[in-house]
């Protein structure tokens, strides 16, 4: 029988149970994979336990990528990659972007008659 105010832990094969927060069911397995049972609130809001966020390096205010993989929703931190780009490549990309916006603005000007 569960005592009032205590959290339940999920039981997986040979678990090492670590209760993180009374609101979450949380387990750390022998493989080092953390799992949590989370509740989906209005508008699809889900709160990720601090231990899960820390394990993958997600900080408050950062963005995550959500994708469906094999029928499961997978969340992972959005970490921009730093790549080497030559100044000429940057200049060309900016020039192309400017030309695209100029074309769009010209089309809008023609549309409104100015």
From TrEMBL:
Pfam families: MazE_antitoxin (PF04014)
Residue ranges of domain SpoVT-AbrB in the record: 35-80
Phylogenetic placement of the source organism: Archaea, Thermoproteota, Thermoprotei, Thermoproteales, Thermoproteaceae
Protein name: Transcriptional regulator, AbrB family
Stretches assigned to coiled coil: none
Gene Ontology MF annotations: DNA binding
